[in-house]
Amino acid sequence: MTVRRSGIRVAAGAYMALIFLFLYLPIGVLVAYSFNASRLQAVWTGFTLDWYRELFDDFAIWAATSNSLVVGVVSAVVSTVIGTMAAFALHRYSFRGKGAFEAFLQLPIVIPEIVMGVALLAFYVLIEMPLGLHTVTIAHIAFNISFVTVVVRARLYSFDFTLEEAAMDLGANRWQTFFRITLPLIAPGVAAGFLIALTLSLDDFIIAFFTAGAGSTTLPMQVYSMMRFGVTPKVNALSTLILLVVVTIAAVAQFIVQGRNGKQVPEEE
Amino acid sequence: MATLHELTRQGALHVSDVKRHKGLRAHVLLLPAYLWLGLFFLFPLLIVVYYSFTERTPLGDSIPVFTLEHYARLWDPLYARILWRSLWLAVATTLITILLAYPFAYALARTPKRWKNLLLLLSVIPFWTNFLIRTYAWMVILRSNGLLNTALMSLGVIEYPLSLLYTPGAVLLGLVYGFLPFMILPIYVAIERLEPSLLEASADLGAKPWQTFLRVTLPLTAPGIAAGVLLVFVPALGMFVIPDLMGGAKVSLIGNLIQNQFLGARNWQFGSAASVVLMALVIVGLRLYKRFFKMEGVF
Amino acid sequence: MKKLVWLVLAGLLLAFVPAGAQQVLNIYNWAEYIPDDVIRDFQREYGIRVIYNVYSNNEELHARLRAGATGYDLIFPSDYIVPVLVEEGLLQEIPHEAIPNLAYVDEQFLDPPFDPGNRYTVPYLWGTTGIGVNTRFVKEEIDSWEALWDPKYRGRIAMLNDPREVFAVALKLLGYSANTRDLEALQEARDLLIEQKPLVLTYDSDNTNHLLAAGEVWLAHGYSGDVLMAADVNPDIVYVVPKEGGIMWMDVMAIPKGARNVDAALKFIDFILRPDVSARLTQVIHYPNPNRGAHEYLDPEVLSDPAIYPPQDVMERMEWIEDLGELAPVVDRLWTEVKVE
């Protein structure tokens, strides 16, 4: 029995190692080649930071980064407010049509992004709204609301509403209760929602591809056009930097979610 | 629960009064979401549905004359093949990722505690990494003068580089690699939530390990698989970037069709019909799936 | 913790918000179609930032403009698409008095049939479409489009991802005009392209240069300058115009309606038409320019290079692409049929 157990454990460990290798080897190669002196990639001809230097001199990349951050932060803030309100309503109250609304709220999660992209494009053309950063932001808020609502609502399940009542019984009014009791208690959930919205927005390519106009290229769009038009290790360098930032944000999000609850359950979307 | 507490506190009120009152407050809280999603999500989708039923002028505009010609055109074997191939590829991607992810998630959930947090973080990172970047990583490896070919040639295994990139296999690899993290996490969460006592009970009652797996573990972790399917199947079905980048624009999927109709051929009406069909496929597919596995909580 | 996150975000946001005051010129163009240092010099001289966005073919440009992608200040469409853009009201007229350097443009390139009187467009560069050959791997003499159907080169062939250009190859090989409106001829061309497809590694309009230079493909259907740029990096590459004839095209500069910075666009056009700047374009990206004044700045070997300035007999075999009008959806469908196989 024990022999078989340890055999299984070794097999499981080996399998996990294989999958991790599959997941990380390409990323490792990508990062390694960002330091390669050769423009043509395949052979290692020496260590260089030239590609990073080129990157920092490239105005288009700075502009795209700035665009992505503006869209990301604005859409995350707005969708966090709207989504948290919706999560509250769905969690605390039951009302007629709730089921239908919940299903509707899940639609942006299940509709393929390309359909949402072309639909928004058609919409903007119809109302003759010129494409730009605002059109991307509006689109991102639209899909982020659903994700924030789901995430915050999942957090609310562990929220003890009797605390609110206790506060009110002790003479706090509605606003005081909300800001002194409710908000601090649900803050980890709201923060997780915000970070997920931010990450999804920074990550989105497909919807931005259809809804961005001149001068509103986002970072993923910039990566795409660099991948398509003239590949140099500069793309690797840019990818490496993005990886670094995203990993940091993800780690912070994970920390917030885990730290407060003592569980290591990541958010499902 | 909350309503119950409120009721006991406010005692004097009638149940129906409370409900009406609460309902109003709920709708006030939901109003911004209603408005935003109504205006910037539902309305745009309705425009697409509308376009898909209207006639197209030679310049590409819609005239409000009802027609089914765009849908009829999708029945044409040519486009039906594109649909079929997209569906097939999405299903294959989903199945392969389930097969790869399930044992992995299972092993991860059974890892000793001191390793678990680190390994979990390692599994989460690819989840948050941009899929363009991860696609690009494979292009670096697979292209003719990429890592793999260079290695094989310097080892003398091959004389000329193999065509690895720009093949249907590369597209499938790109899809599986791109979506694997989306399958691992939800399955992991489901396995993590599994009560070990249930498995013990099953074993105590004389079930063989595979019986326990099929009768207890699998059904109880099915919601995790369902969530994973949602995160993999849907985006895989609408994908147009990976076929272009890793398939050398030789494989046309429904995503490419839609993209080309909107940003190339300028036939928005036909592109809209394809979008509506794609949407319908996804919703019907998930509904069937839900019924088949008697799943709750999935659309 | 949360405060820290906010602080970092706020800091990042402030750091990235553009300085504001600086003027920006949004260019929408083909990939690698203006040398970097030409853009840099323009930015330095005028203090205007250039943002360079890329499209892959004229159809994409047209569709993006139609889809409300307003805000581009300067675009570089090809000849045949110009009348379509004009007819759909997507371009604005160019005031000739704002471009004194227009005087340098050779007369044979002015007043073209696609834009009488140059009301909407100013010539940029022109060129041909042919085959790029890597002579290290392809030992035989290539002089026909037929080489792209040779099974020897399976998996070593790249085609442009452009329906009109690709159909032109098949039509030329079959002895038809690239602009034929004969459905049977088009269907024949489609069959020929389906037959070719297993040999093709990739359909790509944006990377001919890199695919050839890196040895990814040995034969590439591509634009003359792209192939010659690959030859700069890899001396084994040569450019061939097949005996059946190829496509000739001229790209022009135009200002779309809704441009935000027309003034900067006009300055850029005039800058490009300076003889020395025009010469640098040809020197670096190897497409011939229509600028009379540029000749004195060009290296003699460039002027006499038949791959850049095709000799008369080659020119006679060339054909311009015309807009197919109501036949466009037919070609789109045939192209989809090729792609689906």
Keywords, separated by commas or semicolons:
heterotrimer; A: 269 residues; 11 helices; 77% helix; disordered C terminus; C: 341 residues; D-Maltodextrin-Binding Protein, domain 2; 2 domains; 8-stranded mixed sheet; 3-stranded parallel sheet; 18% strand
Give an overview in words.
The complex is a heterotrimer of chains A (269), B (299) and C (341). With 269 residues, chain A is mostly helical. Chain A has eleven helices and no strands. In chain A, helix 1 (2-33) crosses helix 11 (233-261). Chain B has 13 helices and two strands; from the N terminus they run ααββααααααααααα. Chain B is 76% helix and 3% strand. In chain B, helix 4 packs across helix 10 (209-238). Chain B is an all-alpha fold and 299 residues long. Chain C has helices at 2-16, 36-46, 58-66, 82-87, 163-173, 183-196, 208-213, 224-233, 262-272, 275-285, 300-303, 312-316, 328-340, and strands at residues 23-30, 48-55, 74-75, 91-92, 121-134, 157-159, 200-203, 219-223, 237-240, 247-256, 319-320. In chain C, strands 4, 5, 6, 7, 8, 9, 10 and 11 form an eight-stranded mixed sheet that branches. In chain C, strand 1, helix 2 (36-46) and strand 2 form a beta-alpha-beta unit. In chain C, helix 6 runs parallel beside helix 13. Chains in contact: A-B, A-C, B-C.
Helix content of chain B: over 70%
Assign the CATH class of chain B: Mainly Alpha
Biggest β-sheet strands, sense, barrel of chain C: 8 strands, mixed
Task: Report strand order across the widest sheet of chain B.
Answer: 1-2
The amount of helix of chain C comes to: 25-40%
- Apparent shape of chain B: globular
Report the CATH superfamily of the largest domain in chain C: Periplasmic binding protein-like II
Distance between the termini of chain B: 25 Å
How large is the share of residues in beta strands of chain B? Answer: under 5%
Largest interface between protein chains, with number of residues from each side? A-B, 93 and 102 residues
How many DSSP helices of chain C? Answer: 13
CATH class of the largest domain in chain C: Alpha Beta
The number of distinct β-strands of chain B equals 2
Secondary-structure element series of chain C: HEHEHEHEEEHHEHEHEEHHHHEH
- Helix and strand content put the structural class of chain B at mainly alpha
The CATH topology of the largest domain in chain C turns out to be D-Maltodextrin-Binding Protein, domain 2
